Model the fold of this input.
Amino acid sequence: MKPGCTLEARQRLSRSLLWQWHQSYYHRQGIQAWAGGTVPHYISSNPWIAGAYARVAFAWLRDCAAPASSAPDAFAPLDRAHPVHVVELGCGTGRFGYLFVQRLLDLLRRSTLHPLSIRYVFTDFTRSTLDRLRSHPSLRPLVDEGIVDFAVYDAGADRELRLLHSREVLAPDNLRNPLAVVANYVFSGLPQDCFRLRAGRLHPGLVTLTSPRSEPDLEDPELLSRVELFLEYGDQAFDGDFYGDPDLDPILRRYQQELPDTELVFPCSALRCVRNLLQLAGNRLLLLSGDKGYAWRECLLANPAPAINVRGGLSMMVNYHAIGRYLHAQGGELLRTSHLAPFFSVSVGVAGTPPGGTIETRMAVDEQLERLGPDDFCSLAMTIQTNYEAMTLEQLLAWLRLSGGDPRALLGAFPTLARHLPAASTTEREELRRLLHQTWDAYFPIGERQDLPFHLGALFLAMGSHREAARYFQRSLDTHGPDPATQYNLGVCYHHLGEPTSALQAIDCALAGAPDFEPATTLRAEILALLSG
Done:
């Protein structure tokens, strides 16, 4: 190709090369897409949202566990001899799934549903992501217990799941229980179409892609960072019979009839994905989905041209309103929050009527997503994290409790916590100890540079809890590798614990990495004097 070339001309958006490059990006980047900070994921992977989703799923299970009707077409009772599967689409780092499983298991153990077993299935379209999670030390015990499994799954295309660990196949004819599905930041990355609605006619969006240089490798995912995108609308108009699909076209036709002139994003692949999941679940489905998008008709009015974000991978706004229309046509519904324009929209799809109706599910959605939802929590977090220095110890402890032991909150508050510790009361120190352990329990390392166990150890050391500090400094070494500062602090802990041999070994390791580390040299001389005296 000549420099300054056209890569694609007037292609329908859902068929554009953009989506191919999107998948190639994640194939090549793997975990570094998230660990390096290129792809934002905090809002969908923190203890708060995992806890909220787990409570909604738990409430739905309570509805499903109510006494069942004997009518032949009634919602079948839970089969307690088999697990209820929770499938996460596009599991990414695995952090959300780990937090969700821990919280849901805790809720089940403390309830009348404790005999019920669950199996959480991490899925992704790329095998490399799953291979990393299969060997993750935090997940191994759950895999061994049969609580966690994995499956390569292409959302929108695949109709069954082949589990990698148990070798079972989840298909429409063998799923014994209702199915729960989590889809965070998934639908925005599936192929979509867009339309301009004018005078009751649909004009499809067409994409032209150019590059300022020669592009011999059209498989290169870095094309997303170089491509110039031009979106226009075709002259040919359609009357809602665009896909030749009996489920998708009626939704378009209703939009034609109901909406004034506007720009419309249409989640064609997400709708096909939900259809496949409904078939897999035998129309007994819970869908928990969060993404940038909108779920209310008011948000469809007077829309500007759709934004196509190519930071990292590719993403667009999700039209949850259309997904709700599809679920309603299948006898289900979409439970939405009243917030019209959240920057992270969470919707809960329910298909089939459980024996208990959806009373518990609705209450949980109201309590966990409506009153203080994940987007509200993150809005507060962004404000609080800029004001840590002005906060009292009491306020910091309250924030750590509210966050559910969020490692990011602890790391941000660390300097202020350390400054307050000398004047902390015995009660405040005990509460901080509890919260530090809770933070460790919520930690799922994905290769970030920040060393959480070191910071936990430093706070325990500042409180004089040398045994606990030593455990966390050792975890830091196990997780992040040798470090003179960590080894020195470990030596300090052993010195205070009256274990000079272990202290000397840690100090020698510190000096091997940093021979001029003066505090380590001084402490080594002190330990040798004690051993010789």
Summary: The longest helix spans residues 47-64.
